[in-house]
Amino acid sequence: MAPKSNIAEKVLMGLLIVLTVTAELVASAAVLDDGQDAEYCPKMCSCDILDGLKRADCSNENLISTHTGIPSGVEILDLSLNMVSSIEDDNLATYDNLVKLFLSENSIETISLNAFAGLARLKTLDLSHNRLEQLDGQLFERNGQLVELNLAHNNFMTLSNRPFLTSSSIRMLDLSGCRIPQIFDVTFSELPNLRQLDLSKNVMISLSAVPFAMLRNLNSIELTDNRWTCGSKSVRSTIRLLKKQIKTIDVENCLLIDRDSWGNEFERMLDDTHGTGRNARVEIPIEEVWGNGTGRRRHSGVVWPKFMNYTCSFRDNDAASQESCDQFIECQLSYGELYNQLLSRRNAIQGGRARQMIFFAGMIVGMLVGSFGTYIIYWAIRSCRKRGSNPQQMAISDERKQFHQELRREFRARNRFIVD
């Protein structure tokens, strides 16, 4: 029994040795694999955690591309103060966890349409101080969480009359120092949730309230350092209208505080309001007297009255003038609303009439086409029938000819028999 027990012990010892060696090999292989798959922060970047987010700062490193070798789990990426000139569709594809991206003070001129399409978590994007001249309107349409967009100090001198960007999530937009000469009525029409807008340090000389009328959530706008003058009545009138809609407006004080000369003009409007003075006269539009049709009309003969182009001013210490001016502005706003309602109704009526005309025209065309098609089908069927009946008629006519020939032969034979 002793030899058998020794053999069993040796076998067990051998199995233990084999298992131990195998375990060590597996462990060493795992260590090697971990070493090969380990992710490192590149030397040109500094990595840390800020506000619970993984940050990589690769700024001011003379980089010419966004490819830095940063691990894909980065959530804050700073690539500012570099030499990046363009952003292609695949440049940021691996950084799908980005929450904040800083690309300011580069030389970016072009951005592909799908450059940011894969950044579903992106909330903050800084593209300021670059060389952008235009952007595709759908560039940020897929970034459903983008809230803050900084485009300051680019070159948008050639804004076209179309929506600048399309996004339902952007709340803060900085367009300061972009050399913008004019804001069109539809420029911000596709940014319904915009709350803060910076248009300072541009080259605008006029301003309309229409582009901001549809921005119901806008509560702050920056308009300082543009090219308009303090004496611009249209800008002052627009600012006065915007103050009723927007909580905070940052603009030159001279456009908010009226001068004495402007106040005197409104005082002349209030002098002798009841017409008690001698030779009191008022200005009357010449088209109302001569009826030569020179008055400005809009949209199917609807008159746009001249008083809608007037502005009024008042002194700060004259409460009565201020109240009258406010009432005048309220009157303009009310008329504008009624005017737009009238246009909407007319457009709806005209649209209904147009649809009716199209419907009846379609019916007439359909009847004509149907009649023509029916005639073609009838003609084709009749032709087929004629072709099918021709052989039968020919066979009948041949039989008749043979019958008549036989009758003639029989008649001739009988005549010969009688003569003989």
- Quick check: average pLDDT? 77
The succession of helices and strands, N to C, reads HEEEEEEEEEEHEHEHHEEH
Fraction of residues in helix: 40-55%
Strand order of the largest sheet: 1-2-3-5-7-8-9-10-11-12
Distance between the termini: 152 Å
How much strand? 5-15%
What is the number of beta strands? 14
Envelope shape? flat
Number of alpha- plus pi-helical segments: 6
Largest sheet properties: 10 strands, mixed
- Structural category: alpha/beta
**Low-confidence spans:** 29-36, 260-284, 286-300
**What is the CA-atom radius of gyration, in angstroms?**
44 Å
Keywords: Leucine-rich repeat, Membrane, Repeat, Signal, Transmembrane, Transmembrane helix
Signal peptide: 1-23
Pfam family, one: LRR_8
Transmembrane segments: 357-381
Question: Brief description of this entry?
Answer:
One of its GO terms (cellular component) is membrane. The protein has helices spanning 2-37, 210-213, 233-245, 260-270, 286-290, 319-419; strands at residues 46-50, 53-57, 76-78, 86-87, 100-102, 110-111, 124-126, 148-150, 172-174, 196-198, 220-222, 248-250, 297-298, 302-303. It is α/β, with parallel strands linked by helices and 420 residues long.
